[in-house]
Amino acid sequence: KNEVEQSPQNLTAQEGEFITINCSYSVGISALHWLQQHPGGGIVSLFMLSSGKKKHGRLIATINIQEKHSSLHITASHPRDSAVYICAVSLIIQGAQKLVFGQGTRLTINP
Amino acid sequence: KAGVTQTPRYLIKTRGQQVTLSCSPISGHRSVSWYQQTPGQGLQFLFEYFSETQRNKGNFPGRFSGRQFSNSRSEMNVSTLELGDSALYLCASSLGASGVLSTDTQYFGPGTRLTVL
Q1: C-alpha pair distances (Å), A24 with each of A8, A66, B41
Q2: Does A42 touch chain B (CB under 8 A)?
Q3: Which residues, 6+ apart, have CB-to-CB distance to B71 below 8 Å?
Q4: Cβ–Cβ contact A54 with B under 8 A
Q5: Which residues contact B34 (CB under 8 A, 6 or more apart)?
Q6: Distance from CA of B88 to the nearest CA of A (A)
Q7: Tens-place pLDDT, residues B90-111
Q8: How near does any CA of chain A get to the CA of B86, in Å?
């Protein structure tokens, strides 16, 4: 079982819709990251969370440490939001710090 | 400030060869981490270097190695290439003072796409 599970794997929506991508993890973490990867491979770090909620423009990320769950929301979605969104957790495995990634959510926003 | 740069961007090798990839971090960043991305396994952590020392390591065989120079530039080497090593190799830099990836924002390079024939 992966330490990090994302859902859904694929998501198609119409422009303007409210989008939610979920991330669940099974172990204690020191931080959770949301990343965006556009076609071509470039990755951008969107948020880093250890508690609570962060907002940047139309993007909102929340984390519930007790429930081991995080969500990424996109309001008023736009075709340029189409990308793969990846959740990653920073944790300690056998005394070493590591970043473990979810499998990603492929988001397609149609005009 | 210039972003993270990786060279080369594309590379084709044959099985059994070795390859060296280079990563130049953002100026002032002392931590460089390397990742492998494949369609089947997704993104996986390879290792992290900080101040010329390997600070953390993922679960990859010894064929994968790296080093970091005094100017924080890092190289990753893969020896005896296998078909399964075909992947996008990404590096990311951060200030790194708080330990790998725990509270520092990672800045990713564009990646090197390696194809092994």
Answers
A1: 11, 11, 18
A2: yes
A3: none
A4: no
A5: B23, B45, B46, B47, B48, B66, B74, B76, B89, B90, B91
A6: 8
A7: 999 988 766 555 567 889 999 9
A8: 14
